[in-house]
Specification:
Low-confidence stretches: none
Helix content: 25-40%
Mean pLDDT: 88
Number of helices: 2
Distance between the termini: 89 Å
Number of strands: 8
Largest sheet: 3 strands, antiparallel
Order of helices and strands: EEHHEEEEEE
Structural class: alpha+beta
């Protein structure tokens, strides 16, 4: 079977990537942009549903589904508080200087899409008692 060029003349090789029509490239780019926008919308809808879920099983299933596409739940309990990655929602007094500045608990779960922070977790932080 002979291969033909787009101009109808015979040729001996398959069309290369440079033979792709600019309109086809534009359509592919538009499809990719739409797919990425749809992905973001679905992620936001899942976060909305997670915030309102009453069932632990539903929360677990939504988090598993998000994790499968690279969106991780963030619960930094026990980590050092980092204002660039965490939002302080409250403080718990402590006499232990080793706990000062450590996240005591996560009030609202945060989420990251791969390395991009979608929502910072809201946390309660241990704070040294004033003497």
């Amino acid at each position: 079977m002979a291969w033909f060029r787009k101009d109808g003349t015979g040729g001996g090789s398959v069309a290369s990537d440079t033979d792709v029509h600019p309109l086809q490239q534009s359509v592919a780019a538009t499809d990719l942009e739409r797919a990425l926008a749809d992905r973001q919308a679905l992620i936001q809808m899942c976060l909305y549903a997670l915030d309102r879920a009453r069932s632990g099983g539903v929360v677990e299933r939504l988090e598993e589904g998000l994790a499968a596409i690279g969106v991780q739940a963030l619960r930094p309990d026990g980590e050092r508080f980092d204002p660039a990655r965490h939002e302080a929602g409250g403080a718990v007094p402590t006499d232990d200087p080793a706990l000062d500045g450590i996240v005591a608990e996560t009030e609202v779960t945060g989420f990251a899409d791969h390395d991009h922070l979608l929502r910072a977790p809201i946390v309660t932080v241990y704070a040294k008692k004033n003497p």
